[in-house]
Amino acid sequence: MNHAALYHRHKQNWAFAYDRSTIYIRLRTMRDDVERVQVCYGDKYDWLKTEERGGMIKLVSDSLYDYWEAVVKPPNGRLSYRFHLQSGDEQLYYGERWCKANPSENSDGNFEYPYLHAADIFQPPEWVKDAVFYQIFPERFANGDRSNDPPDTEAWGGEPGFRNYFGGDLQGVLDHLDHLEQLGVNAIYFTPLFEADTNHKYDTKNYLQVDAHFGTNELLKELVAVCHSRGIRVLLDIVFNHSGSAFPPFVDVLEKGQESRYADWFLVRQWPLQASEGAAAYETFSFEPNLPKFNTANPEVCEYLLNVADYWIRIADVDGYRLDVANEVDHRFWRKLREVVKAAKPDAYLVGEIMHDSMAWLQGDQLDAVMNYPVRDSVIKFFARGVIDGKEFADSVGAQLAAYPLQAVEASFQVLGSHDTPRLLTLCGGNVNQSKLAVLFQFTYYGAPCIYYGDEIGMTGENDPDNRKCMIWDERGQNRELFQFYQTLIKLRQENPVLRTGRFRFLHAMDRDNRVAYERWDDGNRFIVMMNASTESVELKVAASSPHWQEIWTGTGVHAANGELEISLPGFGYAMFRSVS
């Protein structure tokens, strides 16, 4: 066995409390190097009498390692533990301070989870596991009130640009809630609604006022109330990393320089400064001079921004926030924000825009979840662009699955497209069947799926601004068959908890092979999904743990002969099986 590949540490994603009585424990070993792993655990104060052993399952693998997992109930809330590994005739015991063939008789040198405190349990909102989000870019969704249109508003459906307007607003959303209800979504994610000088509104001018071109604060309150009456949650996008250059405190700094009472609200490098100097004179988001970065180490800035987060929950009853550029804001601020938001609404959802390893933000004291861009990128590379094979796809998904505690994975925000990416159908070269494979994976994997407005009817678009086209409301311009596919998946996911919170494993994923299969299961249900991400027809056979199955899309009963399911899949074809008694 490769001793150097062994890795474990207590807390974070390696040993975490899932609830008041349960701890998940994980161990990393070299891939295909270890045949069997047990966790030996007990109470350190009475090790000889309390020691138990539990088998560990191979949770997932990546290109280098296997990740093993066990679920244990700590005696008396305390947990001392070590691992027993076997491969052929070799055995090994692995603890925090030793790695040897024979263990010590007592708990000296073991790993420890000192005490399972209820206050330390990471608990994202339960409702998020059941959520299906729909992302709305308000300016391009629907124009419901022409009286608030910006000057020079263009005819609906014209060519989108970086600076043009089509009059989309909150009334337009209210007018089309039937579309969302018919689709089956139960949560909306709005890109920013607050007063700003652009069509995207990420350059906030007034954090306490809905932009007049979208409506009013009262209209937002009405919209949220109507959504709640229909069982739809509402998530607002909010920017605490930076403001817009028209934000009054920044304007005051531009006018008064170092004499401004807001001089320390921003990260100024040199005085005097001009807005056009951008990052040369003051820190910004990227190098955009109209997006000055906040100094969140300033207590006044913190108080102002925290009050903003509290305000929209208390006056409009919103259900949480998508936090822009979350990885560029200090951790102390996020800890304060969590306390304020959870005090105002305990089940509010805090999801951060982070595109890399996010464990530092997902320890229960800051964010509830992040946008799962790593998995999204793997899905796009495999299903849409075809630049990786099944093994690399499974390895990358496995690595991400092992990277976070289970509850963070279950609450993750699963996107395939957004206002920041080309649309899914465009990435698939216009091939609807190919796009369906990516959507099928999205809705049968962990996390809350999010549909970018219009993807459900086959809208296309390259990068910004082309991905921000006006929503197509004429059904003659919509792909209704694709809409029905989304409907079916949403209904299937909502009716089967196993597709939301069941265990996950790949059954088939190989080098130079565009076929994949995976299983979701819990104590009473099993689903197997099989997909062909190539243009050619293929045969696919996988191990099946139950003898009788039903294919979801056709309703056909299938017998797993010799413990195997076998099917022929056309190019970009798929099948989905449910075990039946």
From TrEMBL:
Keywords: Glycosidase, Hydrolase
Domain of life, per lineage: Bacteria
InterPro entries attached to this UniProt entry: GH (IPR017853), GH13_cat_dom (IPR006047), Glyco_hydro_13_lg-like_dom (IPR004185), Glyco_hydro_b (IPR013780), Ig-like_fold (IPR013783), Ig_E-set (IPR014756), Malt_amylase-like_C (IPR032091), O16G_dom_2 (IPR045857)
SMART domains for the chain: Aamy
Annotated Glycosyl hydrolase family 13 catalytic domain residues: 135-493
One protein family per Pfam: Alpha-amylase
Record-stated family: Belongs to the glycosyl hydrolase 13 family.
Annotated protein name in UniProt: Alpha-glycosidase
Species this protein is from: Paenibacillus oenotherae
